[in-house]
Amino acid sequence: MKMLNNKKDKKAKELLETFDPTSRFRKFKGRMAIAVTIIAAAMSLFHLYTAGFGVLLDLKQKAVHLAFVLVLIFLLYPTSEKYKDSKKVFYLDVVLAFLGFVISMYLVVNYEALVGRAGVYTTLDRTMSILAILLVLEATRRVVGWELPAISVIFLGYAYFGPHMPGMLAHRGYSLSRIGSHMYFTDQGIFGIPLGVSATFVFLFLLLGSFAEKTGLGELFIDLAMALTGKTAGGPAKAAVLSSGLMGSISGSSVGNTVTTGSFTIPLMKSIGYKPHFAAAVEAAASTGGQIMPPIMGAAAFIMAEFVGVPYVAIAKAAILPALLYYLAVGFMVHFEAKRLGLQPMPKERIPKVKDVLKRRGHMAIPLVTIFYYLFRGYTPLRAAFVGIVLAYLLSFWKKDTRMSFKELLDVLEKGARSALGVAIACACVGFIVGVTTLTGLGLQLATLTVSLAGGSLFLALFYTMIACTILGKGLPTTATYIVLASMAAPALVELGVPVLAAHLFVLYFGVVADLTPPAALAAYAGAGIAEANPFKTGITAIKLAAAGFVVPFAFAYSPQLLLIDPAFIEGLDSASAAGPNFLSIITIVGTSIFSIVALSGGILGYFKRKTTGVERMLLLVSALTLLIPDWRSDIIGVVILASIYFMQKSESDNIGSLVEEGI
Predict the structure, then answer these.
(1) Helices 217-229 & 254-271 angle (0-180, nearest 10)
(2) How far apart are CA 467 and CA 332, in angstroms?
């Protein structure tokens, strides 16, 4: 069994490196490995210390964070793929790592002098700013690929060549010196809100994910999910949905979660009769949804809280109902597929008991419960994460099999730092896009252009935004996709009457589901690697399973009640929050949404009480759409259609059952 687990772990690592660029770092040995471990552990300890005893001044906190990030990236990530397996360090990498440290600490050391000069920059200042831009672009290219740096360069070029731009995109243009100083010395560029969130909340929760994985929290989720769903038809697939949703809400990584939990759930799904591509798609759809599942969600949710200007708990509160609808839809599709294939529950001897699961690893859920308590009592996410990490470490000593040695603790600290590098450098690089948007007024121009193209139609504006999110999400991490479109697309939706929070969540949802959409469906392709299935077929199936991810955002854009926002107060988020939700409206919209999800699942999979005919399938899809329209008349039509199909199929099933009994 141990050998089998080692093989699974090895395959999981290979798939992670294939589909997740941030995992393609060099594996050093000897002194260099020790040096990297020390630097990475120091990074984790710095963030733990500042979370527990107070962060530094805003710019200094971001600068120290970026210093660690740049040093580790230039040491760990090679200039190109052909040097990935090289164990030696190139002088160029050492020089770049040193320069990355210098340009970051330059702001820390000279902070008072820079504040005193109040925007008057020396030749050295300007040199540092240009060097910082180049280093961030190169570091981003090494970690997340060329797409984000390329887009950033286009935006920087736009800031410089403004007078030569056509029509409403033209502006007066800015010198290289002005662009460099804006990107380096202000909080509108590299050291903007995204990097600030990465340097505080995001890093701590990624570190928490490393502690959770090491102490076996993932195994607890899987075993608990198996215990709760194993007795139902298609139990392992439902367990995959439940466990991946729980683990994904902590890790916030679609690909990483697909690989880690999928290495167990996908073979189990195949063993009871699910086709390989369907098993892989279930895991991919469930893992991807973790980024929109409270209480922790993905890194973008913390950035959203800063952009929108509300406490993080308000984001989690708003996201809970749409996320549950998403997972409910995946669960229904899994159930209908199990019924269609005639799959049986798992054998009793293979189903763990809830009591035994909780007795063995239940204590490792205490840190999560504590985090929930802290968040909903009004403490900052930083404090909640700090307490959760400390508790996770202390509670690991409760049982011998979860106890961490000093070496294992170092490994966790190192892994936590490595897992943060991709998010952190993406946040730094996307600062160029945000910076140019604020410097040139491009965001306002694009919002005006979107509204103009949509002809004032909210549906068209939502549709254009969905397309932009899906396309941009092909080449960018979810966090970067959200930041770019939150700056440019969300304002257009707000202008057309969508509440601020609903507009930002709309952008986030479609940035997330891009991980499932071919041709760059990374989460689906990673699952296909484990299942040994056709990648493209897996991607198409994953889209079907995640169909709610395409429908629910439109639902809450039109019906803000799903986000616990009263539509009578759509003019601003603050007034909406102060007014409180209309619970009767919430109950109505949640009820119709659940019916819509059931109809959508049956229509997409072609199975309800039995296999549907072409007409029934079309009617189910019509029912799903009418139930999402915020109007009582359309709701009645949708319910009538759904109920008619249900009772008609039920009557047929009862008749068949009677005939069988009579025959017997």
Answers:
(1) 40
(2) 27
DSSP letter at 70? H
- CA–CA separation, 512 vs 408, rounded Å? 32
Count how many Cα atoms sit within 13 Å of the Cα of residue 343 in the half-sphere of its side chain: 27
Nearest to residue 260, comparing CAs of 322, 229, 216?
216
d(CA 502, CA 315): 10
3-state helix, strand and coil shares in percent for the chain, rounded to the nearest 5: 80, 0, 20
Residue 228: other Cβ atoms inside 10 A: 18
User: What type of residue sits at position 190?
Assistant: I
Rounded CA separation 77/21 (Å): 10
Cβ atoms within 10 Å, residue 9: 12
Residue with tokens 């484990």: 530
Where do the structural domains in the chain lie, given as residue ranges?
582-664
Tell the burial category of 498 from Cβ atoms under 10 Å away from its Cβ (0-12, 13-18, 19+).
buried
- Give me the helices (H) in 354-405, please: 354-361, 366-376, 381-395
477's CB contacts (< 8 A; 6+ apart) are: 144, 148, 422, 423, 426
Query: What backbone torsions phi and psi does residue 607 show, to the nearest 5 degrees?
Result: -150, 140
* CB contact at 8 A, 258 and 527: yes
Q: pLDDT by residue (tens digit) across 541-579? A: 888 888 888 888 998 888 888 887 754 444 444 444 444
Q: Which two tokens stand for residue 172?
A: 């007066």
- Please choose, from the candidates 554, 589, 473, 480, the residue with its C-alpha nearest in 3D space to the C-alpha of residue 521: 473
Q: Determine the Cα angle at 219 with ends 217 and 223, to 5°.
A: 120
Distance from C-alpha of 260 to C-alpha of 256, rounded to nearest angstrom: 6
Neighbours of 499 (CB within 10 A): 26
Helix spans in 230-272 (H): 235-251, 254-271
CA distances from 43 to 66, 105, 108, 252, 412 (A): 10, 14, 16, 20, 12
- The reply to whether omega before 295 is within 30° of 0 (cis) is yes
Select from 277, 276, 274, 285 the least CA-distant residue to 339: 274
Residue 312: how many CA atoms within 13 Å on its side-chain side? 28
Question: Phi and psi at residue 521, in whole multiples of 5°?
Answer: -80, 80
The pair of structure tokens assigned to 461 is 């504006």
Residue with tokens 């740049």: 70
Q: Model's pTM, two decimal places?
A: 0.85
HEC sequence for 464-515: HHHHHHHHHHHHCCHHHHHHHHHHHCHHHHHHCCCCHHHHHHHHHHHHHHHH
Q: What distance in Å separates the CA atoms of residue 612 and residue 168, rounded to the nearest whole number? A: 52
Return the CA Rg of the chain. 25
Q: pLDDT digit string (tens) for 202-235?
A: 899 889 888 888 887 778 888 888 888 888 887 8
Find the helix or strand (DSSP H, E) in which 114 lies. helix 111-117
Maximal CA-CA distance, the chain? 95
Higher pLDDT, 68 or 23: 68
pLDDT of residue 358: 85
